[in-house]
């Protein structure tokens, strides 16, 4: 089904505040509550909304370092890549992982307490992952823009 202007407004509003009540959401998009709730359920059922979550504070959780790691494989084998991807899923401090094109095979976003903590993680965990032959790290100095949600076409 095509998204209309109201559907897009609902998606924009819910990205900004996933805890918005149906009443406030309806008011924001200019609908009464029942049709707004129906549309929201339809958007969920059709897969436009995958879920809801809270954004946690890295500083409150004492995770002061964000690193981006480029991982390279020596051998490109499907079974090895599958094993690597399964293991990545079980490591909480890796907050995103992308299979990429270019000179590296994967790009990981990782959080750590500090540089020493990241160094230990790099040595003991990243370099020990199946298939990994090299790791290149880039450290974030500050976050300029946080994931603000997807743009609406």
From TrEMBL:
Recorded GO MF terms: sequence-specific DNA binding
PANTHER family named among the record's database cross-references: LEUCINE-RESPONSIVE REGULATORY PROTEIN (PTHR30154), TRANSCRIPTIONAL REGULATOR AZLB (PTHR30154:SF34)
Cellular component terms per the entry's GO annotation: cytosol
A Pfam family matched in the record: AsnC_trans_reg
InterPro entries: ArsR-like_HTH, AsnC-type_HTH_dom, Dimeric_a/b-barrel, Tscrpt_reg_AsnC-like, Tscrpt_reg_AsnC/Lrp_C, WH-like_DNA-bd_sf, WH_DNA-bd_sf
GO biological process: regulation of DNA-templated transcription; response to amino acid
Species for this entry: Caballeronia mineralivorans PML1(12)
Record's keyword annotation contains Transcription regulation: yes
Official protein name in the record: AsnC family transcriptional regulator
Domain HTH asnC-type: 3-66
UniProt keyword terms in alphabetical order: DNA-binding, Transcription, Transcription regulation
């Amino acid at each position: 089904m095509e998204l209309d202007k109201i559907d897009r407004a609902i998606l924009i509003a819910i990205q900004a505040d996933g805890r918005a009540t149906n009443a406030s959401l309806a008011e924001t998009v200019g609908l009464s509550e029942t049709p707004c709730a129906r549309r929201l359920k339809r958007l969920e059922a059709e897969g436009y909304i995958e879920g809801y979550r809270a954004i946690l504070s890295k500083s409150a959780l004492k995770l002061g370092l964000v690193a981006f790691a480029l991982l390279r494989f020596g051998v490109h084998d499907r079974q090895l890549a599958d094993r690597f991807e399964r293991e990545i899923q079980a490591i909480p401090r890796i907050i995103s992982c992308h299979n990429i094109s270019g000179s590296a095979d994967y790009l990981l976003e990782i959080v750590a307490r500090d540089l020493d903590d990241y160094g230990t993680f790099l040595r003991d965990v990243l370099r020990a992952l199946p298939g990994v032959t090299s790791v290149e790290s880039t450290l974030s100095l500050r976050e300029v823009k946080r994931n603000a949600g997807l743009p609406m076409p």
